[in-house]
Amino acid sequence: MKKKICIVGVSGYVSEKLIHLISKHKHVDEISLVSSSMAGKKLFDVYPSMRDYFSDNIRIDEIDFKKINSHDLVFLCVPHNESSKLVDKITTKIIDLSRDYRLTKTYGLPEIYKEEIRNSELVANPGCYATACILAVYPIRHLVSEVIFHGISGYSGAGRMASQKFDYENNIIAYKLTDHHHVAEIKKVLDLDISFVPHVVDVFSGIMITAILYLKEAIDIPTIKKQYTEFYRNSFTEPVSQIPSVKEVVNTPLCKVYVHDEQQINKLIVVSVIDNLMKGSASQAIENMNLMFGFPTNTALSDY
Questions:
Q1: Considering 64, 125, 145, 210, which has the largest number of Cβ atoms within 10 A of its Cβ?
Q2: CATH of 3-125+281-293, one of 1.10.1060.10, 3.10.20.30, 3.40.1360.10, 3.40.50.720
Q3: Which position among 6, 128, 133, 255 bears the catalytic label?
């Protein structure tokens, strides 16, 4: 049976990606859009490009919990600290794309928590940096004592409004050197001592993580690479043999992970790349939706 989907919050970059992906989902026959700031507007007025994907110009509604609860699943694309004000009033399945429940509810990283996601009523979509960091290390976390993550992101990660406030043009900006909010979720999943230093650069989307792994003992690189390949089999994470670039994953649901061929005494370098708006948010939310309803994981994502 086809599903009725509601998206609460439609003004951001992630919402735009999510609406596009949902429009291609063969098991969805009704989409409702809800926003307190955009209520009364039509979809094509907010996103003119959506004319290419929708035949109907959907009206964006005010928040009405009776209507919201008539759907099979609700995506919460609202600002951080707002989801927690809405969740108790929603009685249907939820995928929350904010950070509000990442430390307390089912963590929506399919490569690791597939079974938990299948059986959950509320899935917390991971942060974009956290997704790339965790996937770079998880298969060999038991061999690691400490990780230093160097993160580089496009400016869309700051959101539509924030991306207009700062001088990104021809620039590189380091920020939140010790207190980035994704650190807590990375530590919870990996259970390791980590450091994380994020930077934003003058590109729209994409994340590159360079992880320096401090090892407990010497390792065999071919064996390690085999572990990555086996762990990520049949997922959207792809171990690769050469250093990947962000261009290879932008506008796709993929994460590409490269394990460097040389171990430096007690250190190993791993590079991962994702699109922060896709695998770091919208397409991963679709993966989680597919798991929650028992659909093939690549439904609406197989064209990439």
A1: 125
A2: 3.40.50.720
A3: 128
